[in-house]
Write a structure and sequence with these properties.
Helix content: over 70%
Shape: globular
Distance between the termini: 11 Å
């Protein structure tokens, strides 16, 4: 039962995140398409006139962090056969990072460094976590292969973003590196629900 509950929580959390971002982008001070291409996810969470639904975006960050902690530490951990210590550490780093992003906004010179640290913990830590998970389970089946692929895509996208922070299309690479974790959360939900 716990397995199915954890799976449903993973699914609902990922759906909530994508929905919250889409709604926040709809009310952002730019067209919907321009928001996704030219504005970072963090901009949606800054409390100002550009993002009237900043609280919705920040709630999605915090929820994803809490769900990752809940799901990984309550049930998903039982599928990790190897590298358990690193799994726990990276889960904690990723979760805390996402929660920091939700509570400490970008755009403020006084707190920007903390926000950036949280983002690095969440994005880089999260994609390394996916690659670790794919190699730490008993088998290397389709789920593990997809997890590895998502981790590699997110890892590469993160570094492309990191070295092109001033590029006009940097937000696209940011989303690519973030969505890998959201997609994994969604797939993991189904993995847990359907697992015998």
């Amino acid at each position: 039962m716990k397995r199915k509950v954890a799976g449903i929580v993973f699914i609902l959390g990922s759906v909530y995140y994508l929905t919250a971002e889409a709604i926040s982008a709809t009310y952002f001070n730019a067209s919907f398409l321009d928001t996704y291409i030219f504005h970072t996810i963090s901009e949606l969470g800054i409390p100002n006139s550009n993002s009237p639904l900043f609280w919705l975006m920040n709630s999605a960050f915090i929820l994803i962090g809490l769900i990752l902690l809940f799901g990984n530490f309550t049930k998903f951990k039982s599928y990790i056969i190897k590298n358990k210590l690193f799994f726990y550490i990276l889960t904690l780093v990723t979760s805390v990072g996402v929660i920091i992003v939700g509570f400490i906004h970008g755009g403020n010179p006084l707190t920007m460094s903390y926000h950036a640290l949280g983002a690095i913990m969440a994005i880089l830590g999260g994609n390394i976590l996916l690659m670790l998970i794919s190699k730490s389970m008993e088998n290397f089946d389709n789920y593990q292969k997809i997890t590895l692929m998502l981790g590699i895509i997110g890892f590469i996208s993160f570094w492309v973003m990191f070295f092109n922070m001033e590029n006009t299309f940097m937000p696209v690479f940011e989303r690519l590196s973030v969505y890998t974790l959201i997609i994994w959360s969604f797939l993991t939900g189904f993995f847990l629900v359907k697992k015998n």
